[in-house]
Write a structure and sequence with these properties.
- The chain has one domain: MFS general substrate transporter like domains (Growth Hormone, Chain: A, Up-down Bundle), CATH 1.20.1250.
- It has 19 helices and no strands.
- With 415 residues, it is mainly alpha-helical.
- It starts with a helix and ends with a helix.
C-alpha cells in the first residue's frame, strides 16, 4: 500500500477505513476491562493466592510480548488483516480455556499463549497492527486526533467492562453458583472475540506488493526506536507493578470492596481516562507531544504514591481517580509520536519493536509485585511504580525534547 493509497484525501474515506478498527477496539477492551476486575477474584475462588495471581498476569503479558515480536518479524510477509483475524480467533480460544480449566499450570499456559490482558492499557498483539493501519489511513494533521479517538473508544469500553464486573454477583443472586457466575465472564469474553473477528472481516485485504511498499524492517529510524523502546520499557515495568488486577486485589484486601464496588470504581476510573484523551490531543497541539506526555504523567504518579498513604477509603479512591484522569494522557500522544518520528515504511516495525520491550518489561512486574504483596508489603509495589515512572518521564524529556514530529516542525517554521 503506497503512502498515497494508504492515506485517503477524502475525510469520509479515511473515517470509513478506520471504523472496523474502532469497533474491534471497543469490543475487546470491554472484555479486557471486565476480565481485569474479575480475574483476581476468580483465581482466589479457585484457591490460588496473590503470588499465583501475579504469575498468571505476568504470563499473559509475556505471551503478548512474544506474539507482538512475531508480528514485527513477519512484517511485509503477512497481511495485517489476516493477523488480526487470527488474533481474534485466539481471543475466542482464550475465553473458552479460562472457563474450562482450574489448575494453576494450565491457566498460566493459556495466559501465555492467549490474549488475556490483566493491565489497564492495551498491551496486546492487536495494538501494533491496529496502530499501523490507523496511521496509514489518517493524514498527519489528524493523526493525534485519530489516536485520541482510538484510545477514547477503548477506555470507555474498558470502563463499561469494569462496571459489568458486578454481573457475577447478580447471577449469584439469581441462583447460579459463584464459580459458575465468574466462568460466565470468560464465556462472554470468547463471544466478544468472535465479534472482533467479524469486525476485522470488514477490513480490506492488503496485497503482497502493497505490503512490501508500506511495511519494512527498521532502517534509518533504528536509533530513535531503540532509545524509545528502552525508555518505554522502564515505564511498562513500573506499570506492571501496579497492574489493574493487582490494584483490584489491593482494594479487595485493604478496604474489603466487593466485585460490584470495585467494578464501579474502575468504571469511573476508565471514564476519566477516556475523556482525558481528547484533552491530550488538544494539549499536544499547543505544548507538543513530549511535553504533554511528561507533564501529565508526573502528577499521576505522585497521586498513586499518595494513595498508598491515604488515611481512609475516600482519600484513596479520590487520589486514584485523579491519577486515572492524568495517567493515560500519554497513550495517544506516545503512539502518535512514535508513528510520526519514523519513516512511513517503518511504522509497523516501529510499533512492534517499541511494544515488545514494553510488554516484556511489563510481564516481569506483576509476578514481582504479587510476591511482594504476598510477603505482606502490600503498598510497596505501587510506591516503586510511581517513583520509576517519574524517573522515566524526566529521562524522556531530556532525551527527546528536541526531536519533533512533522506537524510541530511545520508549526515552528510558520510565520
Amino acid at each position: 500500500m503506497t503512502e498515497a493509497a494508504a492515506a485517503p484525501r477524502n475525510a469520509a474515506a479515511w473515517r470509513r477505513a478506520i471504523r472496523p478498527v474502532l469497533w474491534a477496539r471497543g469490543l475487546r477492551d470491554f472484555g479486557d476491562g471486565l476480565v481485569a476486575v474479575v480475574l483476581p477474584a476468580y483465581l482466589v475462588a479457585l484457591g490460588h493466592g496473590a503470588g499465583e495471581v501475579g504469575a498468571i498476569a505476568s504470563s499473559a503479558l509475556l505471551g503478548s510480548a512474544l506474539m507482538t515480536l512475531g508480528v514485527g518479524v513477519l512484517g511485509a510477509r503477512a497481511d495485517p488483516r489476516v493477523l488480526l483475524l487470527a488474533a481474534a480467533a485466539l481471543m475466542v480460544g482464550t475465553g473458552l480455556g479460562f472457563a474450562a480449566v482450574a489448575g494453576f499450570a494450565l491457566l498460566a499456559a493459556i495466559a501465555l499463549v492467549g490474549t488475556i490482558n490483566p493491565s489497564a492499557g492495551s498491551v496486546s498483539v492487536f495494538a501494533p497492527l491496529e496502530q499501523a493501519m490507523l496511521t496509514s489511513a489518517a493524514p498527519d494533521a489528524r493523526r493525534t486526533g485519530v489516536f485520541a479517538q482510538y484510545s477514547l473508544v477503548g477506555s470507555l469500553a474498558a470502563a463499561t467492562g469494569a462496571l459489568a464486573a458486578a454481573g457475577p454477583d447478580a447471577l449469584v443472586r439469581l441462583g447460579l453458583g459463584g464459580l459458575d457466575a465468574m466462568r460466565a465472564v470468560f464465556l462472554l469474553y470468547a463471544a466478544l472475540g468472535l465479534a472482533c473477528l467479524l469486525a476485522y472481516r470488514a477490513l480490506e485485504p492488503v496485497p503482497p506488493e502493497a505490503r512490501r511498499v508500506s511495511h519494512a524492517p527498521l532502517g534509518p529510524s533504528r536509533g530513535i526506536v531503540v532509545k524509545l523502546a528502552a525508555l518505554f520499557s522502564v515505564d511498562s515495568f513500573a506499570g506492571g507493578l501496579a497492574a489493574q488486577a493487582l490494584l483490584a486485589l489491593w482494594l479487595f484486601e485493604r478496604f474489603d470492596l466487593s466485585l460490584a464496588q470495585a467494578g464501579l470504581f474502575f468504571f469511573w476510573s476508565g471514564v476519566l481516562s477516556a475523556f482525558s484523551f481528547p484533552v491530550a490531543a488538544w494539549l499536544a497541539g499547543r505544548i507538543g507531544l513530549i511535553n504533554t506526555m511528561v507533564f501529565t504523567h508526573i502528577p499521576s504518579s505522585l497521586c498513586l504514591i499518595a494513595a498508598m498513604f491515604a488515611p481512609g477509603i475516600g482519600w484513596a479512591l479520590g487520589l486514584l481517580l485523579l491519577r486515572a484522569a492524568l495517567s493515560q494522557m500519554d497513550v495517544p500522544t506516545r503512539t502518535s509520536y512514535v508513528m510520526a518520528v519514523v519513516t512511513p515504511p517503518e511504522r509497523t516495525a516501529a510499533a512492534s519493536f517499541t511494544a515488545v520491550p514494553r510488554s516484556l518489561a511489563a510481564a516481569a512486574g506483576p509476578a514481582i509485585a504479587g510476591a511482594v504483596f504476598a510477603a505482606g508489603w502490600q503498598t510497596a509495589p505501587f510506591i516503586v511504580c510511581g517513583a520509576l515512572k517519574i524517573a522515566y518521564d524526566l529521562a524522556l524529556l531530556w532525551a527527546f525534547r528536541h526531536i519533533r514530529p512533522p506537524e510541530e516542525r511545520q508549526a515552528g517554521a510558520a510565520p
